[in-house]
Amino acid sequence: MSWLPCGIYHEHYRQDHAWWQTPFVRGKMLFLGLGIFVLLPFFDLISPDFGPYLLNVLVILLYTILAAMGVQLLIGFCGQVTLGHAAFVAVGAYTAALVLMHGPELARMTEVSNPLLALLVGICKLGVKAGLLYPAAIILAGLTAGLWCVLFGLPSAKVKGFYLIMTTIAAQWITVEFFITQYVSQIGGRAQAFSIMPDNFAIGPLVIDSDKKVYFLGVVLVLLLTAAMANLLRSKPGRAWIAIRDNDIAAEAMGVNIVTYKLLAFFVAGAMGGVAGVYWLNYNYIVSPEHFQWFWSLWWVGVILIGGVGSIHGTIFGSMFMVFVLEGLKFALIPLGDVFPQLLDRFLFIKEAVFGLAIALFLIYEPNGLAYRWWQLKNYFNLWPFSY
Amino acid sequence: MEVFLNLVISGIMVGSIYALVALGWVLIYKCSGVLNLAMGELTLIGAYVCLSLYTWFVRPIGQPTLAFLLALAGTLVIGACLGLLTERFFLRRMIGEPVLSVIMVTVGLSFFFKGVVEFIWGTDTRVFTPEVFSKKPIPLMGNIYLDSVYLWSFVASIILLIVFVSFFKYTRWGLAMQATADDEMAALSLGVSAKFVYALAWAIAFMAAGVGGTLLGNVNGINISVGYLGLLVLPAVVLGGLNSVPGAIVGGIIIGVLQNLADGYLSQFTPGGVKEVAPLAFMVILLLFKPYGLWGWERIERV
After folding, report:
1. A151, A379, B59, B117: least surrounded by Cβ within 10 Å?
2. Residue B130: cis peptide before it, omega within 30 degrees of 0
3. Which residues does chain A have within 8 Å of residue B291's beta carbon, measured at their own beta carbons?
4. Residue B199 pLDDT exceeds 60
């Protein structure tokens, strides 16, 4: 996107396709990496009060990015609007919860007569011993959520636009309000919420049980997913998705198998959502259908609209805007709380109203989102002092 | 058989409320092409405004029926004003923008309205006190009974449906709306103001939704879940066809019946929640086989 400085010429496609093309960008990324890996997580060494709070907000930010990335892929790059992504995040979270709850139980079983069950028990024993149960849960959650997402993406073969939106809304209600609340939550006779022991979240010898470790896991997941998405988008599936987004009939005429690629997009988006769900589980150690209300589906769509539809870093900007601005709102309202105590009691509702207004106003006044502003800002400094 | 008839009849009664709200939805879509996801919040606003007016009026007037009618009239006026304002400040700026943006503006509006409503009225369930309609069931025939609330809601929505339909058929403004819905360019060239028509559509949608919310609030009491009505409207309009006014009415009634039947017959097989999910599940199946509904226009797209 941004222009190269004068005098740099690419001689290979490899250079042309590189993510970070100039030393300046590489230096910038180094600083960003330092910030992410050193400054932010260890902020509590500088300020013991603010540091843990900051870490908490950052973990929520990472979760938002993870969840919104799948939405961005579907809406921003494949043009298939989803207003029910919380369903797929929920499926991921619940899959992982079930694996992590029942895996250790199975591993403790002895004297199994059924050969299939014995195989399962053996696998669980191995998994628990090697600390591979949690990574396996992440992968399984991604797969399940992806397949679940494909199931509700099937109508996209026939309908599009508003009709597809209807299907995804139905997906939300059927999955979360019916399937998970009424059936999955009842597994094992437990009421509503599943809780997992923190020591089950073990990757090899490393147990992810403190805020700092959760933060680092989130950073790694976000980096992996972002890299995967960026790479997908510059390879064949990504180009097919973008063609479908821009004009599906033209794409079909050009020989893109639109049904396959739409379903693939649904799968990948659902899988990303599933991973986000596992991350949520790891952050809270508890999962309940109330964490995946329809509100959150719309929230993530709002995130990408504010950040910028069709841009990866737009997702990140949007998440930052939503998380930080709404946290800031809380601080802005605290001084007012002495005068109007209602404001703090009903903060949740104010948050909702502000979120709604923010989406509406962004769409009216800045339809290209924050990513466009960022691009303009970069261009301004690229051309400075000869900007026009 | 009696159970079946009971379910069908009360389904038709509830369905008529859905039909009313669906009518408002279709109207906006037909006139301005906006797919409105804020319909549930419009019903919420209507219900709460009517409730507040009713509690204000009922003490000095003393007669519940008269107070309710006055409150309903007040709701219509306030709804119309809110509709005009919403159209002026939010939707008019979105004319010609991509469909997703317009939908998401209505989603944003729905959050805004919901937040404001919750902030003002809280989340507790409120009921109309004293009751407007008596809770005594009316015997129809044999063992089939009907709550009088349902009956009056049915009558009210039928009257309103007739009023709205004759408004479109016989008045100047209604004809202007029909013309715009049919062919906007031609209507513009004949001197119909599109802005006026859009504003009118929103005002009417707010009014229809407000009445729907009020009637439903009389049945179950008012809390935030009245807004769920906005979601039930979607299966109704998809079933009827997005741009068909009779379709919305028929669709609303069918969805009401279907929901009641599913609740009556299927809930014994599940732990619960069938009533909420059945219309949506039905909609998904419908979308797979007959996406344009009963009377919707099938769009043929070219590159």
Report:
1. B59
2. yes
3. 155, 158-159, 163
4. yes
Instruction: Say yes or no for a CB contact (<8 Å) between B119 and A364.
Output: no
B275 lies in some domain: no
Lowest pLDDT segment from A341-345, A352-356, B31-35, B77-81: A341-345
The rounded distance, in Å, linking the Cα atoms of B275 and B266 is 9
- Asked whether A194 and A288 are in contact (CB, 8 A), the reply is yes
Please say if the pLDDT value at position A2 is more than 70. Answer: no
What would the pLDDT profile of A336-345 be if each residue is shown by its tens digit? Answer: 777 777 777 7
In a domain, B260, yes or no: no
**Res. A266 pLDDT band, cuts 50 70 90:** very high
Residue A291, token pair as written in the block: 């964490």
Of A166, A174, A250, the CB nearest to B303: A250
Q: What is the ipTM of this complex?
A: 0.85
Among candidates B104, B235, B270 on the partner chain, residue whose Cβ is nearest the Cβ of A359: B104
* B105-114, B134-143, B243-252: the lowest-pLDDT one: B134-143
CB contact under 8 A, A353 and B97: no
Has residue B282 been placed in a domain?
no
Hey, which residues 293-312 in chain A have their CB within 8 Å of chain B?
298, 301-302, 305, 309
- Select from B116, B235, B283 the Cβ nearest to the Cβ of A353: B116
What is the domain class of A22-383 according to CATH? mainly alpha
Helices A347-365 and B99-121, axial angle in degrees (round to 10): 150
Question: What residues of chain A lie within 8 A of the CB of B287, using their CB?
Answer: 155, 158-159, 163, 166-167
Cβ–Cβ pairs < 8 A, chains A and B: 146
- Closest alpha carbon to B301 in A250, A260, A265: A250
Cβ atoms of A59 and A214 within 8 Å: the answer is yes
Alpha carbon separation from B147 to A33, A265, B209 (Å, rounded): 66, 49, 22
Structure tokens at B24: 């408002």
Distance from CA of A349 to the nearest CA of B (A): 4
Chain A residues in contact with B100 (beta carbon < 8 A): 75, 81, 309
| CB-based contact B187:B172 (threshold 8 Å) | no
For A155-176, the pLDDT digits (tens) are 888 887 788 888 899 999 999 8
Number of domains, chain B: 1
* Residue of A81, A170, A364 with shortest CB distance to B90: A364
Coil, strand or helix: which one is B303? coil
pTM comes to: 0.90
Position B262 in a domain: no
